Amino acid sequence: MSELFYNAAPNATRAAPPIPKQRQYPTHKPQHVYLFGTCVVDLFYPQAGMDSIRLLEREGITVHFPQGQSCCGQPAYTSGYTNEAREVARVQLALFRQNWPLVVASGSCAGMIRHHYHELFKDEPVTLRLVDTLAERTYELAEFLLNVCKVNLQDQGAPLKVALHTSCSARREMNTHLHGRALLAQLKGVQRVEHDHESECCGFGGTFSVRMPDISGAMVADKIRALQESGAAQLVTADCGCLMNINGALEKQKAVLRGQHLASFIWQRTGGTQ
Amino acid sequence: MNQMTLIPITQIPEPAFKERARQALNDDQLRRNFRIAMDSLMTKRLAVMSDTDERERLREMGNHVRARALSKLPDLLEKLEDNLTRNGIHVHWAETVDEANAIVESIAKAHQAKRLIKGKSMVSEEMNMNHVLGEHGIECLESDMGEYIIQLAGQKPSHIIMPAIHMNAGQVASLFTKTLGTEYTTDVDELIQTGRRVLRQKFFEADIGISGVNFAIAETGTLLLVENEGNGRMSTAVPPVHIAVTGIEKVVENLRDVVPLLSLLTRSALGQPITTYVNMISSPRKSNELDGPQEVHLVLLDNGRSQAFADGELRQTLNCIRCGACMNHCPVYTRIGGHAYGTVYPGPIGKIISPHLLGLENTPDHPSASSLCGACEEVCPVKIPIPSLLRRLREENVKSPEAVPYRLRGQGSKFSSKERMAWKVWSKLYASPTLYRSFVYLATRFRSFTPGKAGPWTEHHVAQKPAARSLHELAREHLEESQ
């Protein structure tokens, strides 16, 4: 037996965290919320961010957008550059001091703040307290609209078939697929169609898409085929990472189908103007 | 740990991972075979695990049983050795695959054994046993149907449960016609019967039977083995000597612990409530018994597992009960198949265990070959947080090779000072609101200068052009107006 075996730290065994309980939502709509726009929305899909703000404002909520925000740190974190991710995350942490909900326009970034910041700051007890209170009031946009604002959407658009794609971390960490479905179901003229292997990853995975372009490319090609075969006229997703991946590949293939952020889609369907 | 702990380097095939993956992606037949097979396995699993509450409770129990076993692994291994020895089973310890092969070889020599028959064992694949013993004039024949097929084809398993899953009936039929001279048929039952007829005789001719172990029970000194073909029972009961080989992590505390694990294993693997055969081996043939081997040996192999065991986070890798559900649900595995990984264990579990077995220097791309989608963690019966462990391995992989503490063999195999510098710059930029806003301002104003080609991204996508104005700008304007 190797030396390592006998030298292993005592009590180093980890058990899985308990099965998460269903999230409890505030009973009253808050007056103020923070919006975390995310880096991809900021630079590439600002309209999705603006439509998120408008949807929240329509619910009578004052939206605060701290100008100091940039990125949740996820790209560096998942690439193994933990210290670099932590320094970026630290700056975000300092921005949301009021006890207002933090609404994030992307499920994977919401998941990063809600579930991974704890691990990122595990060696800093003081910061950790801040992290945990922030995690507690972090919501993905669809989740917030549905369960906290309890929106009642009035569809004004023509009949339309749409497919819903949910990012994997949004699905597994934030249940965004269920929230997205529920919101789309409120839109009378919208028929949501399933696509083949709907729960399967679109192949984005942040830096995975450039580190393993062949595998990622095969995954997005399959995703696109499934979306096209679903008969949907449009794709809707609540995550701009996937949107960038799927739309970028659709455009490369000169396909007609395009994806749109859920916030923009809902805003436009319910009579919102730019 | 020294170089000797490596699996013979011949097992890490050239070309490198990415090239093998590319070849697999271009093989339409292979992609179809895997997609069809994996879809069917996912459906079968879900059919026997449809009750979410029950499934989640069972998974939690499985995780706790494994965690408890690992928390007292040194004690349990000692207890296992004591109880097996008391039951008359010889226990051998091997730190490396070379040591393990030497043990099997010396037992074979002591019995002048020339023919070995083997039930399915992934640890024997780790040892490259067929090849190593073959070089010493000892023939090792696979008796599991899938293993037999790939042995005939001169290949390695592409899946840990279904080693020949990459082949369809037509391909097996051609192989049998070529190697066994049987008439070509794609009737699966007939193909299986052909294989069984050939193998049947071999069990009686074999000098030694080899098997793996699913659970080694410390309390009773029992080796538990599940299988569906009966070949496991034949291999362990018919030849006069039985040698079981397994990893040190396979030990569980007591029989009660086996109940949830067994239920999880067979359901997660093939969607079976229970396997056709469950073998519990507690001793060689006793004086009043008519059959069974006269001698039973157990070889306990470390082969890098200690490295995972030494780290609290990575120790969770050793929870694995080898059901294969992670590969069945993996979008990467489904597309590139098992051989592309080039390691004995493919798929998500392969990506987290192989760096310990072979060193990161021999598996540099494995931790990166995942979108971290989390499908594997979702179905893992013992709740191994595979994406988190992959992320951790990435961290170890991009560290400087000289960084301390030096925890993993091959640390820093993907270290690039250029890439590290790029992330440092990224971090400075995104951690400074002023710098970040200036950067975004420039990126949006000079958006027409976005290059049309952006490395690997534009192989499958159009170049991503920044918007005309950032959300920072639009939000500031909007909120100033409205407030």
CATH architecture of the largest domain in chain A: 3-Layer(aba) Sandwich
CATH class of the largest domain in chain A: Alpha Beta
Which overall shape of chain A is indicated by the principal axes computed on the Cα atoms?
Answer: globular
Average pLDDT metric of chain A: 95
Structural class of chain A: alpha/beta
What is the number of strand segments of chain A? 8
> What is the 3D form of chain B?
globular
Number of helices of chain A: 14
The percent of residues in helical segments of chain A reads: 40-55%
CATH topology of the largest domain in chain A: Rossmann fold
CATH fold-type name of the largest domain in chain B? Rossmann fold
The CATH fourth-level homologous superfamily of the largest domain in chain B: NagB/RpiA/CoA transferase-like
Helix coverage percent of chain B: 40-55%
Main interface: chain pair and counts: A-B, 89 and 95 residues
* Largest sheet data of chain B: 6 strands, parallel
H-E string of chain A:
HEHHEHHEHHEHEHHEHHEHEH
Number of domains of chain A: 2
| Major beta sheet, strand line-up of chain A | 2-1-3-4
Low-pLDDT windows of residues of chain B: 1-11
Classify the beta-strand content of chain B into a percent band.
5-15%
Strand order of the largest sheet of chain B: 1-10-7-4-2-3
